[in-house]
Design goal:
Blueprint: H1 2-8, E1 14-18, H2 23-34, E2 38-43, H3 51-60, E3 67-69, H4 75-84, E4 89-92, H5 99-104, H6 106-127, E5 131-137, H7 160-177, E6 183-189, E7 191-193, H8 212-220, E8 227-230, E9 242-243, E10 245-247, H9 248-264, E11 269-273, E12 279-280, H10 281-292, E13 298-301, H11 316-322, H12 330-343
Parallel strand pairs: 1-2, 1-4, 2-3, 4-5, 5-6, 6-11, 7-10, 8-13
Antiparallel strand pairs: 9-12
Helix pairs in contact: 2-3, 2-9, 4-6, 6-7, 8-10, 8-12, 10-12
The chain binds nicotinamide-adenine-dinucleotide and uridine-5'-diphosphate-4-deoxy-4-fluoro-alpha-D-galactose.
Residues 97, 99, 137-139, 190-191, 210-212, 215, 227-230, 241, 243, 281, 304, 307 line the site of uridine-5'-diphosphate-4-deoxy-4-fluoro-alpha-D-galactose.
């Protein structure tokens, strides 16, 4: 519908997408294009490949996806890009996201995630861009006081990565309260997994995956011998950790709903994006074995320090506010993850910047 409206107006709305070459950003760019928007990607490729942009073009048939290689901490460049492309809003994915690494290198995380977001907001003010959707995380809640987490659950992140997300949330809330002409949609993601059903884009972690799903997929494709399951003595139905997994395409669609809400009304909001359903590590392994037809050998090892036993979202507010809820199941997530992993066993091909 938005596509038709934009077409009839003769020009599609341009949306700046910092981090648009990454995992969630690339899927959101596909949905933006499907709805008639033009994403303007800014990425420094610290954790992504320019090849993903070529795949976005392949999936959507859009040849006019601008890509700028830049760091969001370069405020002047962000102002230039926002002005040159006349961007109406920003969907901000750019940042570092590895919890363990954030504990070892906290200053890198504060610099990329907090200073980077500050720079981007400063650029938006200078360029007069009035809307931002921000990738936050369920990790801002910390140890559950009650479950499921609602948006009003106390915030107490337990690692530097989570602290940076919390800090940016505070910064956005203060900016909105100052009536600077910017409204913000803060999205607290639960555990995004899966891939586009085409199998052309997906998560391509550097080195050994930190997260469960990419690790399982690499075991299935033969890149790793077995999965280490971090703990089987939690107080959960099968003793393994429980999380709220969300298909990355559902998540991408939620960004469009959030964007359109911000474009339509001056209000700002903070909302959970999850399914409301918890799955254990063993549930995920079983579903992946079924989807792939491969065995996933596993070993039970000690708990991973810092892991919470179980948490999941209360997704009620997302439905009330955005009219959005998840529609894809764990089976869909595993099927699409397998399409990506089996079609791209070593991830994206090496492509030189500028060649895609
Ligand atoms: P990703 O690493 O695939 O994508 C992030 C992108 O940002 C990458 O393309 C990277 O190269 C780019 N980037 C990083 N720092 C940059 C900088 N200073 N300037 C320009 N580009 C920069 O990660 P993702 O999984 O797609 O996550 C996207 C966002 O969602 C991140 O902010 C992450 O913290 C947040 N998030 C992710 C998860 C998850 O489990 N994947 C959960 C909650 C929140
Ligand atoms: N797990 C294993 N083996 C592995 C990897 C993970 O058993 O090799 C287990 C974990 O112990 C946990 C579950 O699988 O019980 C999920 O772990 P992930 O690492 O996939 O995800 P987390 O819930 O730890 O964290 C992720 C992101 C965070 C984000 C959070 C949001 O890494 O950045 O989801 O809910 F903040």
């Amino acid at each position: 519908m938005a596509g038709i409206t934009n077409f009839m107006q003769g020009r599609s709305k341009r949306i700046l997408v910092p981090g648009g070459a990454g995992y969630i950003g690339s899927h959101t760019c596909v949905e933006l294009i499907n709805r008639g928007y033009t994403p303007v990607i800014v990425d420094n490729f610290v954790n992504s490949s320019i090849a993903s942009v070529d795949r976005i073009r392949q999936i959507t048939g859009a040849n006019d996806v601008p890509v700028i290689e830049a760091d969001i901490r370069d405020t002047a460049e962000m102002v230039r890009v926002l002005r040159e492309h006349e961007c109406e809003a920003v969907i901000h994915f750019a940042g570092l996201k590895a919890v363990g690494e954030s504990t070892a290198q906290p200053l890198d995380y504060y610099s990329n995630n907090v200073q980077g977001s500050l720079s981007l907001l400063e650029a938006m003010k200078q360029a007069g861009t009035g809307h931002i959707v921000f990738s936050s995380s369920a990790t801002v809640y910390g140890t559950p006081v009650s479950l499921p987490y609602t948006e009003s659950h106390p915030l107490a992140p337990t690692n530097p990565y989570g602290m940076t997300k919390y800090a940016v949330e505070l910064m956005l809330n203060d900016l909105v309260a100052s009536r600077a002409g910017i409204n913000a949609g803060i999205l607290r993601y639960f555990n995004p997994i899966g891939a586009h059903p085409s199998g052309l884009i997906g998560e391509d972690p550097n080195g050994v995956p930190n997260n469960l799903m990419p690790f399982v997929a690499q075991v299935a494709v033969g890149r790793r011998p077995h999965l280490n399951v971090f703990g089987n003595d939690y107080d959960t139905p099968d003793g393994t950790g429980v999380r709220d997994y969300i298909h990355v395409v559902d998540l991408a669609e939620a960004h469009i709903a959030a964007l359109e809400k911000l474009l339509a009304s001056p209000d700002s909001f903070t909302v959970n994006l999850g399914s409301g359903i918890g799955h254990s590590v063993l549930d995920v392994v079983k579903a992946f074995e079924q989807a792939s037809g491969r065995d996933i050998p596993l070993e039970f090892v000690d708990r991973r320090p810092g892991d919470l036993p179980a948490y999941w979202a209360d997704p009620t507010y997302a439905m009330e506010l955005l009219g959005w809820q998840t529609r894809l199941t764990l089976e869909d997530m595993c099927r699409d993850q397998w399409a990506w992993q089996s079609g791209n066993p070593n991830g994206y091909p090496d492509v030189k910047i500028g060649a895609a």
